[in-house]
Write a structure and sequence with these properties.
The chain has 320 residues and is α+β, with helices and mostly antiparallel strands. The chain folds into three domains: 154 residues, Roll (Thiol Ester Dehydrase, Chain A), CATH 3.10.129; 48 residues, no CATH class; 82 residues, OB fold (Dihydrolipoamide Acetyltransferase, E2P), CATH 2.40.50. 17% of the residues lie in helices and 35% in strands. The strands form three sheets. Strands 1, 2, 3, 4, 5 and 6 form a six-stranded antiparallel β-sheet that branches. Strand 11 and strand 12 form a beta hairpin. The longest helix is centred in the middle third of the chain and has 12 residues. The radius of gyration is 23 Å and the shape is globular.
Length: 320
């Protein structure tokens, strides 16, 4: 294994990852319908007589599927192979950013160019040490600029997994107060659109937005109604009753502020919206779809309190 210099990595910046790529299918209503059903998005703009595609589908029209795109550039594979040779053999997606320039409509052909925009200096993270790679994709619809998609991954050398496992096992034997002192939960991102929600949490209230015109409830908080587009809204306090719509059990990676395995649920609230939060009160392997849960507020460290959902011992749901 040989170390790679940042100068070698920087040489890849600006190189094409894909040139004049063409979407495998034109924008079409069946794909729009499937997307909306999966996301639970009933916005009439996507189903009316002159529908548009949901903006967040931007990348979906460019994906190559299992067979990929024939015009894919070798630059990204070369960069990946260089990092593999230096020991950065693991990869994880970290985030993406999208900018929308115009709506996409059924029948339009999607084309795109992608470029390796940046390669970071060596960074040390909880997962291990490596480099962040950012790829920018410029998307066009029938030749007109439609949007930009930035996708960022971390190519890294995993931290010593045995040492991590040993530390995790030791952490489970510590008192809760001692575990809390070793690491804090990530802070929520609070902005002008969701500040009211977090103010409610401080008061032990779970506040749901409600459109001031069509009265449709919505969660998470948004600046406008996703049903009618109105910018007028008020709030309703949730009763706290809900059921588990879906869930995952997190086992890895271990972070000091978390104690895996733990269950993260998509909760159907009685008010007609869904919320992602931890399911507590039962072992993670006992959480089930359809299980009734009740809102409570959990102090996770000396500064942060979060809404979670407690399942009563012995309660059962439907599907596994």
């Amino acid at each position: 294994m040989s170390e790679v210099s940042h100068k070698e990595l920087k040489a890849f910046e600006g190189r094409a990852a894909s040139k004049t790529g063409v979407g495998k299918d034109p924008v079409n209503e069946p794909m729009i319908r499937h997307w909306c059903e999966a996301m639970g998005d009933a916005n009439p703009a996507y189903t009316g007589p002159d529908p548009i595609a949901p903006p967040t589908m931007l990348q979906a029209w460019t994906m190559g599927g299992l067979t990929g795109h024939q015009d894919h550039s070798a630059a990204y594979e070369e960069l990946s192979a260089l990092l593999d040779g230096a020991g950065y053999t693991s990869i994880v997606a970290t985030d993406c950013e999208q900018e929308y320039l115009r709506a996409l409509r059924p029948g339009e052909t999607v084309t795109f160019d992608a470029v390796i925009e940046s390669v970071s200096e060596r960074k040390t993270t909880k997962l291990g040490t490596g480099h962040f790679i950012t790829t920018r994709m410029d998307v066009r619809a029938d030749g007109e600029p439609a949007g930009t998609h930035r996708f960022r991954v971390l190519k890294y050398a995993p931290a010593q997994k045995y040492a991590a496992a040993e530390k995790q096992a030791a952490a489970r034997t510590q008192a809760p107060d001692q575990r809390k002192s070793e690491g804090k939960r990530p802070r929520p991102v609070i902005n002008r659109d969701n500040a009211g929600f977090w103010e409610g949490v401080k008061q032990h209230q779970l506040l749901i937005q409600r459109c001031g015109d069509c009265r449709t409830p919505r969660f998470p908080w948004l600046p406008g109604c996703n049903a009618c587009g109105s910018l007028v809204w008020d709030t309703v306090e949730a009763s706290g009753e809900g059921t588990v719509y879906s869930y995952v059990v997190m086992h890895h990676p271990p972070f000091p502020a978390f104690d895996p395995p733990y269950a993260v649920g998509l909760i159907d609230l009685a008010e007609g919206v869904r919320m992602v939060s931890n399911v507590v009160g039962v072992p993670s392997d006992k959480v089930r779809i359809g299980q009734p849960v009740r809102l409570e507020f959990q102090q996770v460290d000396e500064e942060l309190e979060l809404p979670v959902f407690r399942a009563a011992e012995g309660t059962a749901g439907g599907e596994v």
